[in-house]
Amino acid sequence: MFTSLLAQHFVHNALAAGAIVAVVSGAIGWFVVTRGASFAVHAISELGFTGAAGALVVGLDPIVGMIGGSLGVGLVLGMLSLRGRERDSAIGAVLAFGLGVGVLFLSLYQGYATEATNLLFGSIVGVSDRQVLELGIVAAIVLTGVVALYRPLLFSSVDPEGAEARGVPVRSLSVAVFLLLALTTAEAIQVVGVLLVLTLVITPAAAAQRLTVRPARALLLAVAIALVATEGGILLSLAQPWPTSFFISAISFGVYLIARIYDAAGRVAS
Amino acid sequence: MSVVSVEGLTLRFGDRVLWRDLSFALERGELLAVLGPNGTGKTSLVRILLGLLEPSAGTVTIDGRLPAEMRSRVGYIPQQRIFDRELALRGRDLVRLGLDGHRWGAARLSTTEHERVERTIESVGAGGYADAPLGRLSGGEQQRLRVAQALVSNPSLLLADEPLLSLDLAYQQIITGLLDSHRRSAGTPVVFVTHDINPVLSIVDRVLYLAPGRWAVGAPDEVLTSEALSALYGTPVDVLRLRGRVVVVGTPDDQHVHHVDHAH
Description:
Chain A is mostly helical. Helix content of chain A is 84%, strand content 0%. Chain A contains 13 helices and no strands.
């Protein structure tokens, strides 16, 4: 049965969508983890959900609403460029209210509840040809952004003071990275759902940083880990009919645990 | 022609005037220490020299150009602020960013630039740990790499803003020694902001002393005297020389500064 499933078109679409999302998530993840913005990812994805629910209410494509919601929050967070505790509490406050609004939208929405469930938990097996194309276009935009901004983005992420002194536009880059992150999040929601975006954006990058201190290498490694998690998760869910999102998060977390053990063992040895 | 020329500089925040008509010039290889109590605009002066802050009046030029046009030609060493322990970056990467971190895109360094990064790391004596995770290095080791980051672009001017803060005595000497030998060999002038003159006393050419609302500039022996500082503060101030160290007593600002026993 597994091999016959592999020949199915919807499986091909799922694998393609998973690969696209894995590449962008892994690539942006390094910067997010280094900037300590994991919580922001969560906020952006939940507000993406609010945007999608709002779009459903007024009869728009939920993906458009989701991208709008994510970009809106990304823009605000980037412009505030808060640090530390202040940022945490501000994000928490915005996130909670946004979710409340999302709940309201869902109650107003008279359509199928599955659409909302899919947003929350992902619906990789239902990806259409058109969606794969859309995912590819957004991914190309994000990757172009990451490559074009790579060095100043790296500089301002690890050493904002030094970067500012060298004339790097630190504030604009903060906005840019949150906008790229918002697009990435809107992508990842379609594969793993709102609640599990962190498993593709944060976990692979966090694992990669345990395995190498070289930024470019860590970034590529995060992409590879995200790829293994999504593709492996999709294939496993064909063999064993549990939710794809579970398998993806399990593989991603497994690699993270191994990376931590490897890192700790290396530190003990040296 | 002077490398740095500051003329008629005035800085005002609302009604508060930090300094008026501040003027000085820096020649090749000169080391200027900027001294004074907190809140007299030492860091603001650094930000003006970096082109990050506009003065209320006056002009600054570096190699005849505006600071904002010269940012990639100025090496900056900030206060030693410890990097996050888990930061996934090598010392080598930090140094390299001083050379190409402001350029767009992603690219490898050219062979010449790669060699320059290597040479600079060796020149500050950080070769032994340049490949280790930055966050696991000691504060002094990190500061050595910061110096390398500032030097790697072969800057026209070096700006150091309290670079010795929270370093132990041995590392204070290492860092000042590195800056001193670089300005002698490369001729790069250094602006060295510090609350304590003593670690740099032996290498300072001139002192810019910022007091609330007033300033004075000149050789250490001219500025760091009881007469000069009393005039600057408008109250009696005593400058003592004890075992080759300068001790200032009686400034209105009590948490001031040139203690003999500096807490390490």
